[in-house]
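DM from R.C. (forwarded with permission)

"hey, sorry to bug you on a friday — could you get me a structure for this? deadline for the figure draft is monday and I only need the backbone to look sensible"
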Amino acid sequence: MFPAMCRGRALHLCLFAVLSPVAACASTGPGTTPPLSPMTEEAHGPAAEIRTNVPPRRVDVPRRMDVPPRRAVRPAPVRRVRVDSAALELTVTRRLAHRPLAMALERHIQNPELADRVASAIVYEAGRARLSPSLLAGVLLIENSRFDTSAVSTEGAIGLMQVMPVHVGSYRCLSGDLLDVEANICHGARLLSSYVRRAKSLEAGLRRYNGCVRGRNTPRCQHYPARVLRTASRLRREMFVSAARLDPSVLSPDLKSSLAAQAPAAEETEADTAESSEASDCATLMGCLRRRWSSSR
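My reply, with the result:
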């Protein structure tokens, strides 16, 4: 009998273990609250007071605005004033004569007396030949960067602007001595003016002045007009700066501030022009020997 009672109690325990989760699931359907333990009832009160279907309260948290990164403050660009530089150069020359050009040439000559003499002759002949003084001064700097009044090229060109002796007496200059500063600049200015009128182009006239007819007489002569115009532009800017120092009323305040903000173009210095002049003179062996002989005299 005892084993039968043990088997019955074991069967009851198994049934209780199987049916108790089913009863718990049936009692905790949707909408019902599971029973709380005594510890939970003491902490939260009776089970009837707990609301399980109430959604959580929404708390509006202010969003963090995306602050753009700070950028480096750049200075305002200098407003460049556009003017007719040729007309302004004519105005400066009429009011201040050759002094602005003389001040600009002193940086290249390092001889105030020669710079004043050359600038005076250039301004005078530019007015008669209807050319800008800066253009004639640019030709002079390219042709003779050392301002050697007794220089003689391999082709026989003489003086500051490298004039050939065949042109002496053809342009009604006061003297035919090409070693004289005023006579040499007179011949060079009138020769260039005649070439420009015949070619009807400044670039073609400059190439003809350099002897670049077919590109065989002078090495790299096709670049000659660009070099002259670049040098003339730099000289014109230096003339404006010098004119503002001599007479502040010549230029407008905007133009003076624009010129002060622009750094002078120093890519083509007198050393560069001297090197190019030596390279053109030393194109042949006889040219190098003649240059050394003339410099040693």
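R.C.: lifesaver. Confidence is low (pLDDT under 50) at residues 39-45, 263-281, 293-297.
me: no worries. The radius of gyration is 48 Å.
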